Amino acid sequence: MENENVKNTVFVFIDASNLWEAFKAKGRFIDYESTIKHINQEFGASTIKTFYYTAYPADGTRTYNLDEKHKFFTYLKKGLGFAVIKKELKRIKVVNKDGERIEEKGNMDVEITIDVLHHFKKYNTAVFFTGDSDFLALVTYLRNHGKKVFIFSSKNNISQELRTGADGYTDILGIDGIWGRELKHRGELEKGI
Question: What global pTM score does this model have?
């Protein structure tokens, strides 16, 4: 029998870097306050908890100041009550026939999976903002254990397996009222926010 305390509890897991393609397609960032209101209305949640996962550049690796990014994380945490899980991008030297270059990696799949399973008994509906097919095994596990799972992503960034493997899929590009400030391009596009 389902625990009454989690009957209408929705946990939202946002893979920030995975949303980047949607932001570029829309030309805007998501307004997270409006987005959570939308989720709350759509699912009739009595309780909603949001987790935001991101990797950010190490100090000194960009020509621009990272203070705004850290202020944004603080706003999500203190202003909206999100759990913000962040880490520095890992810088890896890659050597091939053309020489050396630095690649940056900031995958948060393991952190997301740990939190989803750690909080398993606290929610009955999981909402993922990601299109990454790597999450199919987790989605299948949750559904096989009585959870409802919904995917929010964009048509240009959703794997077919994930789109069809959940209880529902929503293309965020078609949701009115969740889009915020305009996406501004730097010399080199920044992944993240």
Answer: 0.86
Give me the phi and psi of 136, to 5 degrees please.
-60, -45
- Give the 3-state secondary structure of residue 123: coil
Q: Is 70 exceeded by the pLDDT of residue 188?
A: no
Judge whether 59 and 66 are in contact, CB under 8 Å.
Answer: yes
User: Greatest CA span in the chain, whole angstroms?
Assistant: 60
18 and 191 Cβ atoms separated by less than 8 Å: no
Would you report the helix, strand and coil content of the chain in percent, each value rounded to 5? 40, 30, 30
pLDDT band at 190 (very low <50, low <70, confident <90, very high): very low
The pLDDT value given to residue 185: 60
CB atoms < 10 A from the CB of 123, how many? 22
Residue 56 CB coordination number (10 Å) = 23
Of the CA atoms within 13 Å of residue 73, those in its CB half-sphere come to: 15
Structural domains present in the chain? 7-107+120-182 (3.40.50.1010)
Report how far residue 76's alpha carbon sits from residue 130's, in angstroms, rounded to the nearest whole number: 18
Percentage of the residues of the chain whose pLDDT score is greater than 90:
60
